[in-house]
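#lab-general

N.A. 3:47 PM
ok so I finally got the sequence cleaned up, no stray characters, all 971 residues accounted for. can someone with queue access submit it? mine expired

B.Y. 3:52 PM
send it over

N.A. 3:53 PM
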Amino acid sequence: MSSMTPHGQPLTWADALSPAARAVWAKHDFESDGWLPLYRHMADSAAVADKLWDAWLPAQVRDHVSAALPQGPDDARLLAVWLAATHDIGKATPAFACQVEHLADDMRAHGLEMPLQKQMPDRNLAPHGLAGQLILRDWLVDHHGWNPRDTHQLTIVAGGHHGVQPGYSAIAELDRHPQLLRTPGHETAWSTAQTELLDTAARVTGTAERFSDWKSLKLPQTVQVLLSALVIVADWIASNSDFFPYFPGERSTDLERTREAWRLLDLPEQWKAEEPEGTAAELFSERFDLPEGATVRPVQEQAVEAARQMSGPGLMIVEAPMGEGKTEAALAVAEIFAARSGAGGCFVALPTMATSNAMFERYLTWLERLPGMPEEAASVFLAHSKAHLNEEFTQLMGGGRRLASDTDRDAEDGGSGNKRRAPAALTAHRWLRGRKKGMLSSFAVGTVDQLLFTGLKSKHLALRHLAMAGKVVVIDEAHAYDTYMNAYLDRALSWLGRYGVPVVVLSATLPARRRRELAEAYTGTSGEGCDEIGQARAYPLITTAETGAVPRLHTLAASGRATDVVVEPLADDLDVLTTRLEEALSDGGCALVVRNTVARVHEAAAHLRAHFGSDTVTVTHSRFLALDRAANDDALVADYGPPAKVADLGGERPARHIVVASQVVEQSLDVDFDLLVTDLAPVDLMLQRMGRLHRHPRGQDQSDRPERVRRARCLVTGVDWSEVPPTPVRGSRTVYGEYALLRALAVLRTRLEAESTDTDTVRTVRLPDDISPLVQDAYGDGPIAPDTWEEAVAQALGAHETEQAGKEEKAQTFLLKPAARDGRALIGWIEAGVGDAEDTQAGKAQVRDTRDSLEVLVARRAADGTVTTVPWLADGRGGLDLPTDSAPPPAAARALAASALRLPYQFTFPKELDQAIAELETDVVHAWQTKDAHWIAEELVLFLDEDDRAELAGFRLHYTPTDGLEVHRAD
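B.Y. 4:20 PM
back already:
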């Protein structure tokens, strides 16, 4: 990186600088009074960027930047290092330097005069990032002959290195206040110091001779974003005094200082994927735990073949039935894509924290078998707000001193034995943690919000883009997102397509229109081939799309696994439900009853328990403590999972049992029931629920199931069948909207209206053959309902269109614009944004159209005032003492942190929400609001009495480990 002195030694930064330029300061610690000269921070930042480029940045990112520069990789590396070196040049201004008086006095003594800080009331117009952008602009114009407008595509990196790119108005306003950049009457001294520092940066980094060629650059906005993110990372590392000590103190040479800092940081290298050879069967047997006798399924084999046929990075959409191994297919494809594109990692995005946690262990198993991993360690991250409570992830985090402080929070201008052990090659690196840096890890699993955030105008957005730009991205359960979320997903895909990020999308029930929208978003075109993929009804189906190429459809045979489900209407009457279950389960069997609201879950469970007994009826829904819900999911898999899995977990399928559940059973739970009773839902969700029926073979032709339930049967309820058209219950209409429910009824009508004397064949939904026809008809535009429904359908359609238009309009508020033409600077890139985007409920509300809601931690308070964790928690976490006069012991605090509960919809209305918060705040335990109680600090706690009851905001709350939270109005 360094130029040479006449004696052949590396040129150090200080050698070429005057005393005045060396006096300019950049960092100051008020506690120790340590400080750092600007030239020293410039040198440190350049050295870190140099290391990051060579040893950390994925080839996929380096190649994208290199393609935009005349001398390719050589130019790209030089530019990245120079931008890092010069990002803080705005600190060489009176507006910044006046903040620490004794350092400012030293600069004055060297001719850099400036007013006192209190004499500069308008200095807020010159944040040092923006000041640096204008100083660099002037330097490129005056010393290298650039057109002022063309400079911003480079200088915006300095302007936005604190996470927000300046807008045109801010630039114009600072141009009207030149005294903030150079003190009047002393302009020459300031300009000379600024020029010295920039000239030295150009010489030392080797870029001095390149600016004439770079004058004609038209940098894509994607390249500007990636360079901005790289500089932010370099700045954060170089700003850490654990790595780069302040003066006075250690003053080793540039090379020694950098080498020691890099050793301390110990940043994991990226994955260097190797393209797998051999057949798909060989690849899957090496990467995954296939059950004995299992063979690769057609969708898996075809996905590998389709990936190998693609000419470059692109989009693959895999549509296949539930339980066909789509996830394993996606990971195999990711390996092929990464080997070809130079991706350094992979991110798997899922709809919820629960599905993310379920995926994480499978993901780690895949990583352990993956070739091309770094010799020392690969960085792994679980990306959601409760990741710190996941046992698998916390074991990867390990221990030891936290070397890296939270440099991303610097002010703008201020200075156990039976648990699985984490393999040595996987680590949650200590520096790559936190809401802004975690996704920079090579490998990540998390909620889809992390991907949606790349389409949200928010602070430090460039870091989110860098995190995605170096990976292969897998999007699971793509059918699970609504219009609002899809707006952000499509915008994210449009940027990923411009970056050349390979993407794999998975769905069992994807409407053809949505398939086309995904392809168009990624490729940025609606040209040739798009009509075909928007009309295809084949199933299973693989679609591949590459920028500049015609999309391809790959049809394939199903695996031969088929289930014929007989569909029947059932009156929405609990006595009728009870009688039907009694008849069906008289010889035994396991039934799943799915309700669309938690209130209906509780109502049905209470009625069924009165008849069948409490031991025969289990409840699961979203209104459980986090630990209880995880235990519920584990218990479902242990009892109703694949036979081999049940045996491995030591479980036993009940002889006769009923599970009453909400929608939590729809996604990512591999469970298998003999009989399904479900509230009417949109047809894709109905099919997802049917996928839990006879999911695994149990004997020849299901002969091991009780005789009365050997035929897969789905009873549809939650509807008044006497009405024309049939009317879904109010709760279902509230959750899904009437239009989607009427379309589902219409496509299932011939089956639901079949006479009782008809054969079961007339009532049958054949899985997977009927999945695509039902989904495409339900989500198409064609008329499918009888004429007698016309008025009701028209009214429902009008309400639906109004709602969807509102969602689309609402999403536009903070939606990032598509990438603009090459050469257009990122000025005002995230103007009118949301500020910080966080993986909290409030953060998610920015990319999900949800009401504000309230999460609490739940503890028990006895009559004598003593507080404990709730008593039923497993693994020694129940009944732990929680002292209120001091921070609880770590184990107790963590158990309480894992006892999180999101309060239901009754507390999402503004009046009730505010009242609930106010009441909970009166119960705050002040001893828990310290760093010693960091697990629970700043959290609201709901204290249950000894009967596990509480009153809050006019509601009576009752929690039980069997039923979760029940809520009733106090009056």
